[in-house]
Amino acid sequence: MIFQVLLILCVILILVLVTKKNKYWIKRGLVQEDGIFWRFIFGDRSLAEYCKETYDKYKEEHIGLDFGSTPTLMVKNLDDIASVLAGDFQSFHHRGIFLNKNDLLADNILFIGDYPRWKILRQKLTPVFTSLRLKTMFYSIDKCAQDFVDLIESDEKLREKPFNILYSYTTSSIGAAIFGIDTRGQNAMDSPLLNMAWKVLKPSFFTHMTFFISSLSPTLFKMLQLRLFGEYEDFFIGTVKRVFESRRNAEKRNDFIDVCLELQKNGIMSDPNTGYELEPTDELLAAQAFFFFMAGADTTANAIHFSLLELAANPTILAKLHDNIDNVFKDGKTELTFEDLDKLHYIDMVVNEAMRKYPPIGLIQRLCTKNTALPSNNMQIERGTEILIPVYAIHRDENLFPNPDLFDPERFTPDRVKDMENYSYMAFGGGNRICIGVRFARLQVKACLARLLSKFTLKEQAYEPKRFERSSFSLRDADAKYELVPRNMNK
Predict the structure, then answer these.
(1) Which keywords are on file for this protein (predicted)?
(2) Is 51 annotated as ligand-binding?
């Protein structure tokens, strides 16, 4: 620990020298905001909040940031955002996070910047989330949701820290449905992945600095041979290897593990358009499993958590949601089927609005990999420039969402969604690198809220957070509480 502290202090000193008097954007005639990086490192809130302050401060659509050795441009214009995330994807496919070859778990489709490598893995893993596979996975997800509610009913103390128990649910449901961890005959909430999930995804100073060094000073990151998730490799890769071995001759379940085993059976993966080849080793596929786990556990828990906080603050909306859920479970029905999910339309609206106000990922970054230009004003973007898309700020922009601080699920009726500007809503990212597990995440959320709110309601309380946790990517408020009250269905 002492070594880590000294290392980080040395890095901060180096970055101070690197960022001193950097006037890259001023020389190009743009406004430039200095000091966001330092305000975050030594501040008390999320990076997305500091970015929002800058977003609101300037009327200009392009704001230069003094953000380390990499020139960084905050982009507001939605046409430019569409170009970065989709239209000119070849120039902006890189997330701006650099990896070392020894960082096995970071070698996944979330972080990979090598385009051919990312492309072939994305293509091969997309079939994990077909409708047929999702329908098959739903049994495991619903089993976890039922066990989650049973656990809350049996132990009132667990309700004192609601975010923690939600984390248990999202971790266990990913483990059961994606990793193929068998939950038959046992409580699905007893997940072997839970402790690791909490350590990996809980924001910390060292995690922030490691990510920042990777994106702001790749040379220094490589020189120090830093790894984003090195301490979890033995446990996680070992766990996935054991699952692979146990499933090689077992009955197929139409899940992620089956896809992995099929890839290994077929041998070398190749892209017919480019000729790029990649071997589906246990380590490479374990890294993809780690991605699903890392990308889904925290973000989904936050989506459910903020939905419940807003429902507690809005009893009329809560009552309408209860009606929607009760209609699915009417006449003593206890089963929740995959087909029932389409009837839970109001859950979708509530969760979409919660993720608008509190997007799971508060900002998106992309690295320019070749000289190009933004479409709105033909601004020239040099190779090596970082583009920052302030999702949280855009979601709270009153020009895009009138009265943005109001929690209003009616924004997401089908008619109003059709009129929503493209890339004004990016709860799951956008463009070519949009979250691959969007549909799976929605199954998790709907099963959890349907099961939970069929048995419980929420005591009315206001929710007006002054700030969120000091996280470099997400919006979190894990200490926020709400009171779950058992429903009297006989009234």
Answers:
(1) Endoplasmic reticulum, Heme, Iron, Membrane, Metal-binding, Microsome, Monooxygenase, Oxidoreductase
(2) no
